[in-house]
Amino acid sequence: MQDISISTLLDMTVGLASGHNEHERFNKLVDAIRKAIQCDCVALLSLQGETLVPLAVQGMTRDTLGRRFNIADHPRFEQICQATSAVKFDADCPLPDPFDSLLLDYDGDLPMHSCMGLPLIYADQLLGILTFDSLSPQMFDAIPNRSLEALSAIVASHLKIALTVSQLEQQAQYTQKKLEELNQQSWQRESSEIIGESTAMQELKSDISVVSASDFTILIHGETGVGKELVARSIHHQSHRSTQPMVYVNCAAIPENLVESELFGHVKGAFTGADRSRLGKFSLADGGTLFLDEIGELSLSAQSKLLRALQNNEIQPVGQDNVQSINVRVLAATNRNLKHEVEAGRFRADLYHRLSVYPIEVPPLRDRGDDVTLLAGYFLEQVRKKLGIVQIKLAREAQIQLPRFDWPGNVRELEHVINRAALKARANAAGKSTITVRSQDLNLGQSDTPPAMLKPALEQSDALPTVTNLRTATDDYQRQIIIDSLKHADFNWAEAARSLSVDRANLVRLAKRLGLSVTKQHKIEF
User: Fold this and answer.
1) What's the whole-model pTM score?
2) How far is it, in rounded angstroms, from Cα 130 to Cα 512?
3) 175 CB contacts (<8 Å, ≥6 apart)?
4) What share of the chain is helix, strand, coil (3-state, %, to 5)?
5) 106-156: pLDDT as tens digits
6) CA-based angle 181:283:295, to the nearest 5?
7) Rounded CA gap, 69 and 139, in Å?
8) Parallel/antiparallel/unpaired status of strands 246-250 and 324-325
């Protein structure tokens, strides 16, 4: 690359204008960047506090998008963030490359390769970084610094515009629906981030956005381990109460004779052992949010007392004559079917209807598709920091196996499986800087819950047609998958490649080998 072509500039501008959402705009931006600089992988990362969050990647495994990189843990990222111009690392640079084990179509330790990073600075503010990797040494040495400075400035401007457009879209949605949206840059706490791009999770995030700005009582349904508390925290952090406390109550852990005291408080001498006055959970949450987890475990007597507080926005501490007004938003969660509990007489119908103003269903992990891979990447990065591992990655067969598992324990089970697998992998790779988690480390055949089973790809094997030529059958299957992906991506090769978690160039080569081609009229010929 000598100079940035007019074509590349047009691609960046068109991509920015044609993207329907933030995800599409960033991917189109990376598509254009890769045309300007030849490389094996490129990553666009946004700076959020002291963390770099991937916005779009090419040439890397899909779980990279689920990772969060603490700058202090990665010396190369630290150098790029502190620089004001392009940083080129020598092929024999001893600093660990955060992406070494994440390149597509390459397993094992990387050979000598090129690495370069550009700080994306707009109005003296670092917005993020752009990184390039190539398996060919000295690949970026000949690129003029002036061209790199221009590319950095252009990408920073486009990133600023893309982020600004996203913020304006959030504000417009708030104006139209009178809801309060949470600005992405205010999410400093990783524990409040909902990771997932599946349709089910997009619908969940949409529901959260809808209810967050209101003060309605929300009932959150979901199986054990799906992340109901995380959903409650997300609602709280996106609400106008976000600067006020969120108080957690595990209803299943409160003895029945102490429910009233725990929730509403008591005064000194109210009962034997009450040697001092104590504020209840409602009082502690005044002005903020009260999260009642496992609300289905409350007794009918406790439900009656809770209903009175919800109806009147008033509480009466045990032993006190006067009532107190409160301003509390209640979020409740349960893994029970409360409608059935009402029919069985174990839950009050009036309380159920009071809680069910806007019920939210959190999908089980088995219904979230490739979100399993993103979450695995997130948990791998967490365990990497906890165990002090330089780099840890999922083997290719492990990435294939994870989405096929039934996950009866949902996200919580996945986290435990990843933590155990990381410990096993580290023990089996003593002395190695890169730890690889393999299928045998996951040990998915013996999960925490006995009914858990793998969902094999060929579950209905007896219904399959007879195959006389394995190569022909494999080619036919791959050909059909590529055709379906292209149609779904509106014949955009880059988008189709991303949906299949492969590199665009590799997908084009495979399609060519299979005899597929796309005409200008978007017809697939074979």
Assistant:
1) 0.58
2) 31
3) none
4) 45, 15, 35
5) 665 566 578 999 999 999 999 999 999 888 888 888 888 888 888 888 889
6) 70
7) 25
8) unpaired
